[in-house]
Amino acid sequence: MAKAKGKAKQMKGKLKETTGKATDDRSMEAEGRGEQLTGKAEEMQAKTSERGKKSGR
Fold this sequence. Notes:
With 57 residues, the chain is an all-alpha fold. 89% of the residues lie in helices and 0% in strands. It is rod-shaped.
């Protein structure tokens, strides 16, 4: 579930970044990049958590 949320945040961020580039809105573009990074971190955290549960920790 958490991995899906991270992926969704990445896609939302990519959309914002692309829209920001198209409209020459640097603020929106930067916000989109930030959301992508946050989503990537959330996804990685979820993967790490799943690995820990599988190994019995």
